[in-house]
Structure formats: structure tokens, C-alpha cells
Amino acid sequence: MGLESLVRINGEPRTRSRVQVPDLSGLEGGLSLDSQVQVVQNGPGSTLPADLTDGVSGIGAFIQNTLNDQTVQHLKSLNIDISGVEALRQAQLGDRLNSQLLDSLR
Fold this sequence. Notes:
- With 106 residues, the protein is α+β, with helices and mostly antiparallel strands.
- It has one domain (2-105).
- The protein has one helix and five strands.
């Protein structure tokens, strides 16, 4: 599974962040990721506090634009590989059978 964040101004990529999680089966305790928050400034006079991203977690962007007639895009995509679907189906079938057997014994 992967998550990507891309900022483009007038079609030109300005920043890109990616997070890849190779195996979801080991995430029983949750997922801990480093913050990948980007700051994108376009045009003169752009000022943002130096500590803007302090305490912010996740993947994303703060975008500041001081110019007119600009096309600003912030795109996010989630890529999911579902190659283990058959194993998941088998596990669910087993869980259902176990549940039905237990219910029949009560």
C-alpha cells in the first residue's frame, strides 16, 4: 500500500511525498510514520511561520500563493495491491465455519 501527495503549480511539480507500507499484516499495533508535510510557496512576499509544521503529522502540504492566474493543484493518490485476496477469503471462510460450528454446539 502506498500514499502519495503531489503539489503542482501551472503543471510543474513542486513537491512530492511518498509513504510505502510493504506489508499490512504486521500492523497490529498501528502504523507510525514520520511526518511528511511540505511547505510550498509561490510568488514574492510569501511568508509563513518557521514553526508552521511543528506538531503536524501525516502526509500533505501547506501551499501559499501570492500570484494571480496560477493553477495550483494538490493531488493525493492511494495505491493498494490486493494480491493476497485469495488468502483473505480462505481465512474468512475458516472464521465463518468456526463460528457456525461453535454456535451449533451451544
